[in-house]
Amino acid sequence: MAIFAPGSKGNKAPVRVINGLNTQLNLPSGIDIDSHGNIYAANGLSESITIYGPSSDGNEGPIAIISGPATSLNGPLSVKLDPADQIWVANAAGNSVNVYPAGSNGNVAPIVSIQGNATGLNGPVDVELDSQGNIYVANFLGDSIVVFPAGSDGDVVPGALINGATTTLFGPAGLVVDHSGNIFVTNSITFAPDAIPSIAKFAPGSNGDVAPVSVIVGDRTGLSWPFGLALHRF
Description:
Elements: E1 2-3, E2 16-17, E3 28-33, E4 39-43, E5 48-52, E6 64-67, E7 76-81, E8 87-91, E9 96-100, E10 112-115, E11 124-129, E12 135-139, E13 144-148, E14 160-163, E15 172-177, E16 183-187, E17 198-202, E18 214-217
Antiparallel strand pairs: 1-2, 3-4, 4-5, 5-6, 7-8, 8-9, 9-10, 11-12, 12-13, 13-14, 15-16, 16-17, 17-18
């Protein structure tokens, strides 16, 4: 994992790099930072979440690891911290979204697990919460975004499903929701002949086979297999 200084652009060297055997990183696919500055990484190949101190650098071991059979981690590809520092994880291989208590370490069971046939989860690779606590999930394999009401748990039916030809969703991966409820998602290119890498924006409350209100797409964007996505919130 590389950390760059604020305002970095162009051929700029990182100020810190977390790398090496001691880090226990193993296909880190998603990262986030809690209210204390600790760094969380979702390791897709080792079924773990590794946590590093705010100043971690080099071949430095994690300060905590969420791992083990009780965790039900199965191909975790994203990790997000909510305002209470609870840990949200999208399990791509397990078709589930798990939530762990703030400060979790070791073989801990999730306190919430959204999973089952009714959920519509199909290769979930990212999870996001809006200001009301509604839960948004990008389904990479399902070419869809599912939305669950705040407090959802278990085999629940989503409150909304953005899916269909008009949405232009192809392998949706990175997902964020702004303070107004606008939904932004990266479309990472798949092997479909008409799939083009892009970033699509959907209006608040979108549901069904709806068109995005705007799309970033084209040769000059530099987009190629875009997976991660974040908004500048400062």
